[in-house]
From TrEMBL:
The keyword Hydrolase applies. SUPFAM superfamilies: BB1717-like. Residues 205-224 are annotated as: Disordered. Its EC number is 3.4.-.-. PANTHER family: ABASIC SITE PROCESSING PROTEIN HMCES, DC12-RELATED. This is Abasic site processing protein. One of its GO terms (molecular function) is peptidase activity.
Length: 224
């Protein structure tokens, strides 16, 4: 499972890399221990424009009675999507990018769970592939929510988990945000595990286990 991630980019960095603009400073706040159910910054396309907005992390089903019903849908696989018609519709026309610097995974043994932070070797900002939905609450409020797509872990990540987020290169942002269905061939091409040669895995402090902790020190490597 990839149920925590990190985002600490500046407003200028996000706007430049994703070709978006917003006057909202809160869309660019740094977070070092993001959990499902949180509001996260998401880049998406709507009415022909590329936008950034705060989405609920956890895809809300169209027939949900409460927005909390989406929390368990914080990540999904292409196989899961194809089994549910409403998720398939999101994949066809409502795809999004989730800006991030890295994600956490835990290596489980009989004695304890050891956290690891996984990032690009360059430490640069990246984008997870996602799908989103717009759910209308009883009060008539539109709630935007999303799910992170995962794929098989590459050889670097495999020792700490068998799944990892789908990471897209900037050259594929435009294709992913296109508001039309993608061919099976294109999906197969995009939804691959990211090359291990471009990534790093570091053991980090067990303080990340506490979801209340949200400090830059959480991603600092410690000796294995």
């Amino acid at each position: 499972m990839s149920d925590r991630f990190v985002f600490h980019a500046s407003k200028d960095e996000v706007e430049r890399q994703f070709n978006v603009h917003s006057e909202r400073e809160d869309y660019f706040e740094s977070h070092y221990n993001i959990t499902p159910g949180s509001l996260i910054s998401v880049v998406y396309r709507e009415n022909g424009a590329r936008l950034i907005y705060n989405f609920k992390w956890g895809l809300i089903p169209p027939d949900a009675k409460d927005e909390r019903e989406g929390t368990e849908n914080y990540q999904t696989t292409i196989e899961d999507i194809r089994e549910e018609e409403w998720k398939t519709a999101c994949l066809q026309k409502q795809r999004c990018l989730i800006p991030a610097h890295g994600f956490y995974k835990w290596k489980t043994t009989k004695k304890k769970n050891t956290p690891f932070y996984i990032r690009l070797l360059s430490n640069e900002l990246m984008a997870f592939a996602g799908i989103y939905s717009v759910w209308e609450s009883e009060s008539g409020r539109d709630v935007y929510s999303c799910s992170m797509l995962t794929t098989e872990a590459n050889a670097l990540v495999q020792p700490v988990g068998d799944r990892m987020p789908v990471i897209l290169d900037p050259e594929h942002y435009q294709t992913w945000l296109r508001g039309e269905a993608l061919s099976e061939q294109m999906l197969d091409r995009l939804l691959q595990s990211y090359p291990m040669s471009k990534m790093a895995v570091n053991r980090v402090s067990e303080e990340v286990n506490d979801t209340d902790n949200n400090r830059p020190e959480l991603i600092q490597p410690i000796p294995k």
